[in-house]
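Cont'd.
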Amino acid sequence: MASIIDIKEECALQVRDFEFTYKGAAEPSLKKVTMPIAKNSITALIGPSGCGKTTLLRAFNRMHDLYPGNTYAGEIEFEGRNILNPKEDLILLRTKIGMIFQKPTAFPMSIFDNVAYGMRLQGIKNKTELGDRVEKALKDAAIWKEVSDRLKQDANGLSGGQQQRLCIARAIAVEPEVLLFDEPTSALDPISTQGIEKLVIELKERVSIIIVTHNMQQAARVSDYTGFMYLGELIELGQTEELFVTPKEKLTQEYITGKFG
Amino acid sequence: MTAVQKRILINRIALSFSTLSAIIALAFLFWILGVLVMKGMSALNWNIFIFEGAPPGYEESGLKHALAGQLILVGLATSVGVPLGILAGTYLSEYGKNSKLAHTIRDISDIMMSAPSIVIGAFVYAIIVMPMGHFSAWAGAIALAIIMIPIILRTTDDMLQLVPGTLREAAFALGAPKYKVILSVVYRGAKAGILTGVLLGIARVAGETAPLLFTSFNDNFFTTDLNAAMPSLTVTMFNYATSPYEDWQQLGWAAAFILSMFILGLNIVGRLILLAGKRK
């Protein structure tokens, strides 16, 4: 019944018959999800609470592996291999597929050290290189002007919106291929939200983006493709404009017109 | 009398009773501190820090031996107890989590915390002093470390669990291996709390007498030999205060004053660190 369009662009990720079951659950939380994720585009995942959109997002960087007992089935192809393979190097995978969380997650250290964190993990010690790349990441995340004179200060002194942009800077500093956004603006005020959305659109030049959002307007504003999920299934994936104007599935239509949610 | 007036009256009575109880409790505390400060201050002089123990009646008699012994015992106990406590707490919070083993360790540790310290002294006497055949600083320090471990273990466990899980996830999402996540993010987030736990743990054992009585025992002379009996402020205080000699009793007061100030200082510093950590 699902209506999944073929995308024109190259794929960053390809999900095939993906199923995910939480530890101890009788039923899988995600059922036979098949979807392409276009390269250098923004794919939004929408749907009512509990539909599995965050669960799907957290499968892309195997975040679920932090909590033992969850099981995957099916395939997620990335760079020509199935990343659900138990032998997948998760440390390497996570440097290529970064994540931004719902609440800003500034580490309890200086602004500079926050952005340098991922690079230092990769063994970059050279001070000039670190300095240059921190500056570049902060500029790319549109926060350099606000923090350039206080890089040594504690990152927790920044506002929520600034912290979220700092987290984006930290994620892009390691030059990932894909960025996962898990409701990145739900804890922010409208002006900070606008800033993050603008930034997300700019970033697709360099990375492929998947964004989970509760806010349909946000999906319509920023994304190229939108996937509508309901009860663990991907009901429809289409170009954002088409999905919102002429949805192919009745469920999608009902959801976007507010008949349930 | 209306219902509201009645409630106001009951409220006043309850308030006066609880205020009175608080005043009585605090009065005893300040009474103890007052006597300690008066008697202790008057007994303080430079000789205390310069001379070691001497028979009653000698001018040149001090507490140097007990002060040094106390520092050595507490220092040794700290260097054993703090790493063990922090590492075990880290295991509980970061690895064991809600497993059966972790819960068992937490329960046992809570029981250990309320175990009478003299029992721990007897235990160390049986496993170290008896086989070695003599009292030693090692035995005393190990007894103190055993008392310290559950305190530090639980505070470390509690403080690490206060670090939000999303912070850990964010570090994992950048490709950090688990040990790095703990070292560079989780410990940093819990720094103030862990340090406070350590200071409170030290303060707790610094005032112990019972477990030292039959482990490090006592000595009236300055020594740094860890394989021999070692004097401590607490046991010296006990001996001097219960002696019939006026000058020894004076030294006992001085020892009580110095020890109390040391422990009070540790507690205050611990609380200040926690407060400063919270404010951030």
